[in-house]
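FYI - complex with KE4, inputs then prediction.
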Amino acid sequence: MNFARSQKLFQEAQNYLPGGVDSPVRAFKAVGGTPPFIARGKGSRIYDEDGNEFIDYVCSWGPLILGHSHPQVVDALKRAAERGTSFGAPTELEITLAKMIASAVPSIEMIRFVNSGTEATMTALRLARAFTGRDKIVKFAGGYHGHADGLLVKGGSGLATLSLPDSPGVPTSYAQNTLVAPYNNAEAVAGLFQQYPEEIAAVIVEPVAANIGVVPPQPGFLDNLRSLTSRSGALLIFDEVISGFRVAYGGAQAIYGITPDLTCLGKVIGGGLPVGAYGGKREIMKMMAPTGPVYQAGTLSGNPLAMTAGIETLKVLSQPGVYEQLESTASRLEKGIARVVGSLNLKLNISRFASLLTVFFTDNAAFDYESVSKADTKLFGRFFQQLLAEGIYWPPSQFEAAFISMAHSDEDIDFTIGAIEKALNRLEV
Ligand code: KE4
């Protein structure tokens, strides 16, 4: 493959943007080489500035569950843009999307739209602190909830990849209010509640961890968090920015039958445009300005284009058979990779939850940050480069999930399995 134009653009970009990118993982630091500069996307495919074509398993890190440039979304966006892109005033579109989300996720009685998952989790934690009058929060090692200061403590996702356990610039005083427990370890959380009685405002958790690669909750883990928080007067916050409307139309909370106090959403509900949201019980949410004293605001919050893309995306997702199709496609990929791994007698671990999948270069179980951090990230980098050369755009980090969309066909999956077989054959593992 020829990447001449991407190499030239990458050089130029680095003069203006740190690392040439607007989000660290895109710079391919974890896998090496030059990131292709993408010119366009259609369905399951993306095309770079050199004309190379890739089957895309990043899907903009989750939002494009319908695939790129879905006609229903694009047509609605064109019409919306002609009516105006943003008013800084209420629109009916916000009610429409709010109603769709509230009917899909009963724990969300009220919701506030913001512009990113980071804004959603940052505000949900501020709200939890205000509602409980407590300062401390609990997160999980490897959990990534965006880049708000108090959450960059043993972050996952890009931080895990860049092995920066804490980010410089976060005041120690902020970090001291963030307690960290291992994922899938409710006993450790119980210990924190014993150590800091009446001080913990909330536990924030990815109900299906996807920023250390895909690590599903062990049986009982989420139930235990629910009972621990209820007993202690702390709030349970489900960060469903990835899992929301992806693992099920009602999110992971629908699968596990757990009612969190607050839920954070993003990605899919914006259909590829910048959206985040936090929502939950009415008695908690009405503490938000202007009905209550907790402040949060945003110029483009709930803007008509993002609302439109979200509404059209959820309309498609609410149709019968959608999650069955996603499950069938993702399962076909998982089984195909497993066949290859088995035939080559490789020590790899394939971890899948619905349409999220990670191939871990370790035979450790996908249990928590500790267990997956043993993965051979160098080997993963070579695997990634082999796949790219075969026309597969896999997530450029061992600690991210591959995202399967409604646009991935059986032919795409079979081609991908063939490319993975070639790639693994070429690795001296
Ligand atoms: P954003 O601020 O990036 O919209 O959302 C932050 C966030 C919150 N919660 C969860 C569970 C998330 O996964 C994220 C962001 N996800 C990463 C990918 N793992 C975004 C990609 C990137 O950082 O470039």
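The mean pLDDT is 95. The first strand starts at residue 38 and ends at 42.
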